[in-house]
Fold each of these.
Amino acid sequence: MNATTQIELIQPDDWHLHLRDGPQLAAVVGSSARIFARAIVMPNLRPPVTTTDQALAYRERILAALPAGSLFQPLMTLYLTDQTSPAEIERAKASGAVFACKLYPAGATTHADQGVTDIWRLQPVLEAMRALGMPLLIHGEVVDPRVDIFDREAVFIEQVLRPLIDRLPGLRIVLEHITTAEAANLVRAGPETLAATITPHHLLYNRNALLAGGIRPHLYCLPVLKHERHRLALLEAATSGDPRFFLGTDSAPHPLRAKESACGCAGIFNAHAALEVYAELFEQAGALDRLEGFASRHGPDFYGLPRNPGRVRLFQDPWTVTLSYAFGDDRLIPFRAGELIRWRAELVQSDTHDLP
Ligand code: DOR
Ligand code: ZN
C-alpha cells in the first residue's frame, strides 16, 4: 500500500499555548496564527493575568501583535490565586472572552509563584466555575520537594485530582500536558467532564533525549519528560480516537540565555512546527486518519465551541527547521532546530465563527 502523502483537516486549535507579552509576543504569535484558528492562551505572565480586565487587555495586545489579515482568535484564561473570588469567575464568563481558568499549584513551574497554595480553599470558586460550565485547566504536579520530580504528576493524581473529581462532580477539568500512563489511564476511565491535552514533545521524546549523552536544555520542560513506557502510553492515548484527548502544544518560548544557563528554565517552543510534528507521530503510529479528531474536533467539542469552518492541508515535503529565531533582545531555539520534518502544513481555507 502506498503511504499517504497528503491529507486535509478541519483547521485545528491549540488548547494550551504560551504567547508571552511585548516583543516576545510579537516574535512568536505568527507561528501559531499560521495554522491554528484559536488557542487557549496561558495566563502566566509577570504579573499573572488574574482578572477579567487584565485578560481583556492582554487579548487586545495579542490581537494587535498578529500579522495583518490574521483571523486567529485568542481564547483567554484567568490565573487562579488564593485570592480569586467567585464574582471574578462570573465577570470572566460574562465577558465572553475568557474560556477557562488555570490552576498552577504555587511554585510548580515558570511564573507559578502566585499560584494556589491550597486547592480546597478555592471550593467556592470551583463551584462557581462548575455552575457556569467554565473549564478548570490543571498543571498537575505536586510541589512537595520530598516528591521525586519524575513522580510529581502521578502523586498529584492520587493526592489532589481524584479527590477533586469526587468532590466536584460535573466540574469540567482539563489535565494539561499529561506525561504519564497514570494520567492517560485516569482520563480514559474518568467521567466525560475530564479531558487531557498532550504536547508534541511528550509524544516524541522520553527522558533519555533530555539527559543521555549530554544535557539538552532546550528539551527541558515541566512536567519533565518521562520514561519510554509513559511516552508509549501517551502515544496510544493520543492516537486512540478517544475524544477526551486533544491537541495542546504547551509551546513555551524562553530566551536562549535563560535556557542555556546553570539554572535553565522550563519550556519548549514548538509552535513553528507543532501540527507537522503531530502528523509525523500519527503517521508513524499508523493513525493519520485520527489526527483530525485529536487536532480539530475533540477540543472544540469539549469546550462547547463550534468546530472551525477553515481547513488545512498537510503534505509530505520535507523541510529543515530554522536554527534560531529573533526573540526580543535575544534568540529563540525552536523545537527540532536544524532537523528535517517530513510534513508541511498550509491553510487552504481560513474562516472564523463569531465566538458566542
Ligand atoms: O515547561 C513549561 N513551561 N511548563 C510550564 O508549565 C510552564 C511553561 C512556561 O511558561 O514556560
Ligand atoms: Zn503550559
Amino acid sequence: MNAIAKPRGRLFFANPGPTNIPDSVLRAVAHASIDFNDAEFFELYERCVAGVKRVLRTSQHLFFYTASGHGAWEASMANLFNTGDTLLVIETGHFSESWAKMGKALGLCIDTLPADWRRGADLAALRAKLAGDTEHRIKAVCAVHNETAAGTVLDIAAVRAAMDAAGHPALLLGDTISSLGSLPFEMDAWGVDVVVGGSQKGLMLPTGFAFTGVSEKALAAHKNSRIPKHYFDWSEMLTRRHRSFIGTVPTTLFYGLAESLRLIEEEGLEQVWARHTRLARAVRAAVKHWSGNGQGPELYCQDDTRASDSVTAILMPEGDDADALRAVCRNRFNVSLGAGLNKLAGRVFRIGHLGDLNEPMILGTLASVEMALKLNNVPHRPGGVAAAMEALTA
Ligand code: PLP
C-alpha cells in the first residue's frame, strides 16, 4: 500500500492558536534538562518573569501554571471567590460562555451581560447594570479582551471606565489569551485586577504554560477566598522559590520564552501591535472584497471599530459549508485555517493573524482561500488578494 504523499513546502498555519513558532524559539525549546533550582536556570526564569510583566504592562504579581489557558481561568476563579459569589460575565462569544460554564462548575453564580456576538457588548448597558447593583453583589466583572471565536475585541479600558463611573468596587478580570503580545494591552493603566494569558498565541511558544497577572487588590481579595484549591493556590505559591508552580517547572518552555521575549523586544512591542493591525486590515480588505454584492463570504464582526487585529472570523454564505472550504485549503494547499466554534461550527472559518507572521504569509493564505472559494463554487467577487495587496501598500 502506498503511503499518503505529504504535501511539499511549509504548512501555512493560519490558526488563531496555537500559532507559528519562530525557528529560533524552536531551537531554544530544544534545550537539555536542567534542575529548575539550578542557578543558571533561575537567572533565566527571573528574566522571563520580568519580561512577561513588561508585555502585560504591570509591576504587580505574576503566577505561572503548567496548563493551557483553561488552567489560568480556573486559577483566577479559585483564588478570588467563595462558593455562591456572583460574577458578571460580559458575553462576547464561545470563550465568554466557556468561562461562565467554568464559574458555575466551581459553585459561583454567573450573571451574564448579554450581547450580540457580531457586534459586541453594549457598554451603556454594562454601566446601567453596575449602577443597579447598589448592594455590590457582583464581586467581579469577567471580560474576554479578544473573542477568538467571533473575531471581536472588547475595549477593556472602557469596561474599567464603566465600573468607575458606577463607583463599583468589583474586581476586573481580563482574558488576554488571544490578544497579549498582539494587541495593545495595559494591565496597570487600565486597572485590570487579574489578567489571564497563555503561552501558545502572541508569545509564539508551544502550548504548555499559562499565567495570571494579579493586582494588589486581587491578592488582598484572595486572602478571603475559601474555594478549595492546592495546585493553583497563590498563597502556597508565594512560599515557593519560583513564587509559582506547585511542582516541576517546565524549564524548556522558559528557554523558549526568553527567546520569544527577546524577539518581541527586538521588534518593539508597539511595532508588534502595529504589524498586527497592518496584517489584519489586509485580511479584512480581502474579505470585504469577496463579499462583493452581498452574495459572498462576509466579516462575522459587524462593527469595524470592534474588529480584532489578531483573528478574523468569516461567515460563509447561507448553504455553503465552512469546513468543506477548510478541507480544500488543508488538503490541496497545505493551509490550516481555524474552524467555527460553538453555534458557528460549519458556518464560519477563521484566519488567525497573530504571532510570527508577515505579509507574504498572509497573502499566501488569502490566495489559497480565494482558490478554495472558486473550487467549491462559493459565490464571491474575485480579487480579494489584490485588495489585500492594495491595503498593504496604501
Ligand atoms: N480564552 C480565549 C480568548 C481563547 O482563545 C482560548 C483558546 O483559544 C481560551 C480562553 C482557552 O485557552 P486554552 O485552549 O489554552 O485552554
